[in-house]
Amino acid sequence: MQGVRLLHTNELAAAALEAHVRVKEHVLCTNLVRSHWLSSAGGCSAFLKLESEQHTNSFKVRGALNKVLSMPDEQIRHGLVTCSTGNHALAFVYACSRSAAASQAHSTIYLPTTASPAKVAKLQAQGGNVVQFGVDCVDAERQARRVAQQQGSTYISPYNDWHVMAGQGSIAVEVLSQVPQGAVDVCIVPVGGGGLIGGIAAVLKAAHPGCLVVGAQPAASDVMRQSVAAGRIVEVASADTLSDATAGGIEEDAITLQPCLRYVDRWLTVSEQEIADAVVSLLQHHSKLVEGAAGCGLAAFRQLAQAGELQGRQVVVVCCGGNIALPVLQLMLQTGVVWQ
Q: Model-level pTM greater than 0.90?
């Protein structure tokens, strides 16, 4: 993108720049909105990157599109298989509609049985071929990979894929062209499997090595944080969380671990109450509705603000998605407390 300079280079950042060019005609350049509310709370200049208003209401279209559009038509014709808690699946359906070959190919979407009913309904309404298997993302992923191998189809991971991670990094390319002076001092990103923060962090570190990249996860399911601490992917139990889009385990060979180890500076966990408070507070102050995963990033911002760590800095919070089930929203409205 014109105006974006990388002072240093790394392979993932370069791939994200290529991804930006590949997908830009098919995605929205989402707004980067200055938040006077958050700026006041943190004594900083705070901005919200509203990927919650992207096609399918999630950043996931970027990675799915970059993957599908980079594949040869002959490979696509053998079929496509994916797995998701919902957002990547919605993105997968959208990406396939933007490719002539993919729109004609047989595709199957695997979801865990714990996926949001609202997201399942959306997929089926859009013609997605949905199969639910297992209680966790890892269970569903393993089954999807087995089926893809048996059928000779291509499995497209929601995060454990180079092109997917690079596609998510196109968010950072946009941010650098939107933020004043092209400078980001702190970037707070919700984390599940690590594809989003891996791509974003690689680009930001290439442009501004001093940028503080913060990963935010629900305390009920912080597998990547614990994996980074251990230096390897670990298997830990995940509890129910309002941040369903980031919940569950991570594949043991996930390529996202290394970018998280190399480029992410801080890891913060947030409680279920903090997530609910964040979602209703954004709704109150900005009239913007986001899902629980985005609430993680907002809650992490509040932790840093209360600790006085954002004073005088330019901060970007990535609002990753806006797909929220009505019962979950009702619960948040009942239990969440608006920040003043």
A: yes
